[in-house]
Amino acid sequence: MEKFLAQDIEKITGVKRNRLEQWIKWGFIKPSIQVARGHGSRNIWSRNDLYNIAIFKKVTESGLSRKIVADFLALSVMTGLNEEQINSITFLVYMRGAGRTAAVGVTYLKDEDPLLDLFDIQKKEALRSFEDCYVLNFPFLKEQVDKMIKKVSG
User: Fold this and answer.
1) Structural domain includes residue 154
2) Which residues form the domain of 91?
3) What are the backbone angles phi and psi of residue 125, rounded to the nearest 5°?
């Protein structure tokens, strides 16, 4: 299992250490491998954590509030997925409204129309009952993070 420390996160995602510490303190994100417990211990992050940090950074920089983005990430669309499943995610759809949030990782196979998946989401998740819907091009973001991991790992 790959493990990343705070200095890796700064190099890979561009999130400065003090900003990362604020996000942890405020409960917006947390490491999945190990949470630091006092002096001498460190937060240890997984590759999926780095994807989530990059999502958090990207979407908050686009103007969505940190609380809303943290709520979406708390839904953990990628938790428990293996590498092949994560690689198959075409885009992430986040929805909120009427006091609830939902997140869906949308995948489709070659030669399939991805719009059909959006219609399926609309039926399954009752999309019309949500006020907002946000779509993130996950493969693009993932590719950027993976390139930086490779560069940092040498």
Assistant:
1) no
2) 6-145
3) -95, 5
Confidence band, pLDDT 50/70/90 cuts, at residue 127: low
CATH number for position 53: 1.10.1660
Nearest residue to 135 (alpha-carbon basis) of 112, 118, 147, 119:
118
Structure tokens at 39: 């002096």
Q: What is the pTM for the complete model shown?
A: 0.82
Vertex 64: Cα angle to 88 and 2 (nearest 5): 40
Q: How many domains does the chain have?
A: 1
3-state secondary structure at position 133: strand
pLDDT 10s digits, 17-70? 999 999 999 999 999 999 999 888 999 999 999 999 999 999 999 888 898 888
